[in-house]
Amino acid sequence: MSDLKKRTPTLVYLLAASHSGSTLTAMLLNAHSDICTAGELKASHLGDPSRYMCSCHSLIGKCEFWNDVSKEMAHKGLEFDITDAKTALGDGPSRYVNRLLRPLHRGKLLELVRDVFLSLSSTWRDFLPSWKQRNKALVESIGTVSGANFIVDSSKIGVRLKYLWRTNGLPIKIVRVVRDGRAVALTYMDPSGFADAKDESLRGGGSGVRVDDDESMTDAANQWLRSNQEAEAFLRTVPAESHIQIRYEDLCRDPVATIESVHEFLGIAAEGEGVLRFREFSHHVVGNGMRLDGDSRIVLDDRWREVLEERDLATFDQIAGDLNRSYGYE
Questions:
Q1: Is 62 within a domain?
Q2: b/e per residue, 84-102, with b = 16+ CB within 10 A?
């Protein structure tokens, strides 16, 4: 275990619609000696802790890394268990607060309205400072255990990032990840087939059981649209130098150059082609099922071209085609 650092590591926040390549991005970044990826630090929806696996393939409750993080949190006076992390905004203190936090980020004016109504809750006023402290302490504890100065959070959600951004003493850099919305929509329509571990026995967090409601293309397209609108709305509120945008397709076609552009953005030296051996590095990621795959080959997943029917493509184009094209997807 590393000596306690005097400064808080930089949080590298991956902002994206779900299933847009954020887990792959996070694991590739983890190949750098000064970056540690621990997955979705909001740590919600882990499922049955007696069956959920860390990406190191240990049961999450027996993972040495996460147990060491818990000890570091205890040194800060905070009880912590990754299976009940209490770092998600959804862990709010009341139904009133949770209802106000549910909508995605919608721009300055509506966010001001949200904040005004939240400020009326005394439980929120007590909760927010402790939530910020807990998340900052988690970043620091992961930095202490890993020895890294950059900690990657692939939680993706813009509202979470909004409140993290307001945490004093927590430096943040944002990596926006975009992917062709038609590919992402397919993962919402059939998450078991297109958004989980390749090995069926490892799906559902390692339990082999995944329970999802398959969405219609109408719902899938709207979900992708709103997630990306949220990301753009938030990014308009922060300095341009605080964020970089990469595309999943570029990441797959040229992972070294794409990840090195992120290294340059973070101000750290590239370390060659280690990203091509990213599975060889120690990972302790919670989140998307691909973290449990064993293959280091990076292959562009564009199965949507063969799977989606013309009516699905027409529905997507009507709902989200304009935004998709603005990202360069024709």
A1: yes
A2: ebbbbbebbbeeebeebbe
Number of domains present in the structure of the chain:
1
**Which among 296, 287, 284, 327 has a CA at the least distance from the CA of 67?**
284
Do residues 15 and 160 lie in contact, with contact meaning Cβ atoms separated by under 8 Å?
no
Tally Cβ neighbours within 10 Å of residue 325.
12
Q: Is residue 123 part of a domain?
A: no
Here the tokens at position 286 are 């919670």
Give residues with Cβ within 8 angstroms of 240, minimum separation 6. none
Residues 6+ apart with CB under 8 A from 263: 32, 269, 270, 271
Q: How far apart are alpha carbons 154 and 320 in whole angstroms?
A: 24
Range of the domain at 264: 10-87+133-326
- Assigned token pair, 47: 């499922």
Give the DSSP letter of residue 88: S
Long-range CB contact pairs, 312-318, < 8 A, 24+: 312/185, 312/189, 312/217, 313/182, 315/217, 315/218, 315/221, 316/181, 316/182, 316/185, 316/217, 316/220, 316/221
CATH code of the domain covering residue 59 = 3.40.50.300
Task: Give the Cα separation of 65 and 58 in Å (integer).
Answer: 10
213-258 tens-digit pLDDT = 678 999 999 999 999 999 999 999 999 999 999 999 999 999 999 9
Q: What is the pTM of this model?
A: 0.89
Q: Is residue 112 part of a domain?
A: no
What pLDDT score was predicted for residue 61?
A: 81
Q: Is residue 319 part of a domain?
A: yes
* Separation CA 146–CA 283 (nearest Å): 11
